[in-house]
Amino acid sequence: MTIYSHSALNTFENCPLQYKLSRIDKIRRAEEGIEAFLGSRFHETMERLYKDVHFKVMPLEDLLNYYETIWRKELNDGIIITKRDRVADDYKLMGRRAVEDYYKRYHPFNQSRVLGLEKEIWIDLKNDGKFRLKGYIDRIGRR
């Protein structure tokens, strides 16, 4: 059975050699681009926000403190910044602004009832079990 994912297909589309090295040969890179790093921290922050939204809405300042804490904890020398006129703090500020903007736009987060976070899904591409697409749904909500 062959299993695909959006990220695997995207990697192959961008660079078949990178796909081979990372997905087939299982060679892991020690580096991570700052954009991916920022995206992961934003994603983790949103997951934290919605985890307990049934019980209470985390104040914006607490959420921003969470974002800053995980940024500092996860930042390491393997994070690559390719733009010479940028530093890690530029990206941290960009992420902070994204968290603030999201919070202000959707607060008090009652547009839907959260039914699940980070749910794995599988799609059988040919209905024969040979080719499957694996993915994750960040947040499932009911209006």
Task: Report what the structure shows.
The protein is an alpha/beta fold. The chain has two domains: 1-30 and 118-143, no CATH class; 31-111, no CATH class. 49% of the residues lie in helices and 22% in strands. It contains five helices and five strands; from the N terminus they run E-H-H-E-H-H-E-H-E-E. It has helices at 6-14, 16-24, 34-51, 60-74, 88-106, and strands at 2-5, 32-33, 79-80, 113-124, 131-142. The strands form two sheets. The chain has a three-stranded mixed β-sheet with strand order 1-5-4. Strands 2-3 form a two-stranded parallel sheet. Helix 3 crosses helix 4. It is flat and about 45 Å long. The chain starts with a strand and ends with a strand. The mean pLDDT is 93.
User: How many β-strands, per DSSP?
Assistant: 5
Helix share, percent: 40-55%
Low-confidence stretches: none
Largest beta sheet: strand ordering: 1-5-4
Mass-distribution shape: flat
Kindly estimate the percentage of residues that lie in beta strands according to DSSP. Answer: 15-25%
Order of helical and strand elements = EHHEHHEHEE
Q: What characterizes the major β-sheet?
A: 3 strands, mixed
Overall number of structural domains: 2
**SS content category:** alpha/beta
- Any idea what the radius of gyration is? 18 Å
User: Could you tell me how far the N terminus lies from the C terminus, measured between alpha carbons in angstroms?
Assistant: 37 Å
By DSSP (H or I, 4+ residues per run), the number of helices equals: 5
Mean pLDDT: 93
